[in-house]
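Review box. Two proteins, two foldings.
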Amino acid sequence: MSPLACRGYNSRVNGNIFIVGMMGAGKTTVGRILAQRLHKVFHDTDHAIEARTGVRVAMIFDVEGESGFRKREVELVEELTALENIVLATGGGVILDPHNRKRLSERGCVVYLHALPKELWQRTRHDRKRPLLRTEDPRARLEELYRFRDPLYREVADLVVDTGRQSVNALVTQLLGLLEPTCRLSV
């Protein structure tokens, strides 16, 4: 999709920006700064789930399994995407559920923060809080997740932005320049 054709943009979008991407892509960091610069309310699905349950995402995975976590995630995406004028940083696996992909596409402008597995590995390799990387070969697991999820992120994305090695502020500035014409946001 051309960056100038924001697929879902209409009066129901209500100025929402939803950020998708792999773990370590910078969704939360970029989302917070983007929300500040656009004077929008920031939400993060993983943080909201932790606030509601009182436990870390890793503990939910341990107790309820990935399916239990994904069920909570679907409920939260339904609720948060119905809000207006927000920036939402989603968990890396949010796009696995077709209902989530539909809600994201219908209710806002979706930005895919893209990074290659090699970059993601550099950013996440010391993070012990990521339940999907608790394997014998976390790097191979990350590459497997990327191969499966990348097409799904692209399916819902109105914009794909490579995170590369630029600073967070440079990335946000680039993103603002792309969002304004793409999603008709006043910046």
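Next protein.
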Amino acid sequence: MRAGDENGVDRGTFVIGGTGYRMEPGAVEYVLLARLTAGDGDRPVFLAAGQRPVAHRAAVRHLVRARARLARGRGPDGSFCVLLKVVNSQAYGPDVVELVADLTKAALAPGEAKGHRAAKGAE
């Protein structure tokens, strides 16, 4: 998620795989919705990270309505990560949501966090 420049341009824009998802307040907002666990049998944690409060509400409503569909075809722990688009929130509020991308594979793939130096040689 971009912090934006000194004028706030691009603030809150999600950048995923080189593609930017910029919000247009009241028209288009994006939200990441994820279900994650630390290991087998652990209780899940749900994450709704949106560009505006209406996007958070939209993600939770989508989770409640589509929980069975979101859980289908997932791994044994049921983890997932999707990018949703909230459409015309000025008119519909958090009620109209579209799936933009299923990011589960990329989100759960092992990898090194960007911007962190390896412990070896870090002082």
